[in-house]
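Write out this protein's structure.
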Amino acid sequence: MQRRWWLVAAVLDAALVATFVAIGRGVHGKGDALTGLAATAWPFLAGLALGWAITRAWRDALGWRGGLGAWGGALAGGMALRALAGQGVDAVFVGVAAAFLALFLLGWRVLAWPLARGHRPALAPVRPQ
């Protein structure tokens, strides 16, 4: 069943990375210009794609491998590409990015994993007998 979910996982990961960037730009008063969002997001999105490729995340898109590949790629790849592009990278930013990206890219997988494997949620309605 996992193999059907890889595209959903990839799109959701990319949307969550873009959300992380948009939140950061909003908090720092950088505005919401689409070009500014794209300029800030591209290193993280490229890192995300690299992480997916290195770990073959599509094989376990909802599992730990997919999550760690997405998180590690977006974080490490994103920071490396930001540094190469001359966009600032400091320790506090790396820490905040690590926490937010972990929450976003690992958090949704924790919630989705049982559902994707066919387990009934604990709060699912009980059928009358």
